[in-house]
Amino acid sequence: MTRLLLRGGEVITSNERYLADLLIVDGTIEAIGRPGQWGVDDADETVDADGCLLLPGGVDTHTHLEYVVASGKTRTADDFESGTIAAACGGTTTIVDFVRPPQGVGVYDAFQQRRAAAAASCVVDFGFHPIVPASAGDDDSFDQLVRLAREEGATSWKFFMAYPGSMVDDDVLIRGFRLAREHGVLPMVHAENGHMVADAIASLIEDERFEEHNHLFGHPASAEQEAVNRAIMLAEHAESPLFIVHVSASDAAEEIARHQARGVEVMAETCPQYLVTGYEDYRDLGFGAAGYICSPPIRERANQERLWRAVEQGTIATIGTDHAAFTLAQPEGLPPQKAVGRGHFPSVPNGVPGVEERLMVMYETGVMSGRLSIHEFVDLTATRPAQLFGLAPRKGSIAPGADADIVVWDPKASRTLGVDTLHSRSDYSLYEGMTVSGSPRLVFSRGELIARDGEPVEPRPGRGEYLPRQRFGTAASGWRAAHAAG
Ligand code: DUC
Ligand code: ZN
Ligand code: ZN
Question: EC top class, in one word (predicted)?
Fold first, then answer.
């Protein structure tokens, strides 16, 4: 039995803050005591957190590590090891990634293969959202998905409404949403109208507008708004809750707010890149704009203010990253990265890095700017994602019985973000040069110190554990709590 005492910090949860000492036994929070309640003799090890905040470890429910794209022709730069080391250094102790079955492999087998790969390499705990194959309307994929929900606790499924080869029709959405409701699964959608996107890209190609920054115009906000509205209406028809990932367009966020106000159970995520960076940052960068290419796209700065309002007003439930890291340069030993599409935006692999920067960027632009309270910050980045995706009460909060995933956050630290000190294999950061106040001094995962001052501590690939997740709705969701209160 190992006993760790964390002394002198201020515990922050989604609704409380108080000075306390934490007693951690064998990786679990055993008890929360008043300051000074225990002495050094009560523990094998004592850690001083004076002047620091004790935050629940970050929960990022949207990463793509070792993610194969372009029909198998390439893969993200980060694998499970480098991606989770980056996560740990930034204070994120849980990720939920995706399983996309390769051609000819069923989703059940693909899940088991990916789970085994992650179990061998991750340094933080992990789960998976299976992606519903485009063929699901015609084969036994839904049977396999139900099996994964039941047997492996994979209680969220992702549906694509865009991308040739991935997108599903409305009938698959309706059937999938019904099955999801029946089996306690939270359906998630990538909400862009794939036909509108394909048409917009075809027009750009016809006009020979191939430069990287044109990616924005291939993904109009109207395509996102249409898909968001349709997905919500279909989920309501199927009497299912719904989660919309990576909302980028403020019009889409306002659509979500309108349906929430009618009482529809729809929750949504946005990502730091949509709140903090804008089209104006990459418009004139030439090939450098490839580093900003992700879908949905990073939109004009004018969009940001309204998207922030959706976060402030609670329309948005979680902040994930959609971390899908590629490099701008082409390193030896990696499959084709961003440069494969130089001068031809439709060929650029989609995705941006951000898993390490998430908490620091959101603390700076949310809490320090006065847009978010420290409780809302914790709620958006840890508590609510854990609740909605069936990880509570183990993850997402500081409470007796929870895993001791704790970030000792130094609110006075100042740091300038840059690729030289970040750990993703990507060779750029969207936040290069941004000075942030507040950063993770110590990061514990199940009571084990895994990062100190932004650097990994003796990383042990394979120490991360697979997290089977509970059925949706098992823990009271923040969305429900907020609506019950209001
Ligand atoms: N968009 C996605 O939907 N997934 C991965 C990366 C991206 O940009
Ligand atoms: Zn997506
Ligand atoms: Zn994604």
Answer: hydrolase
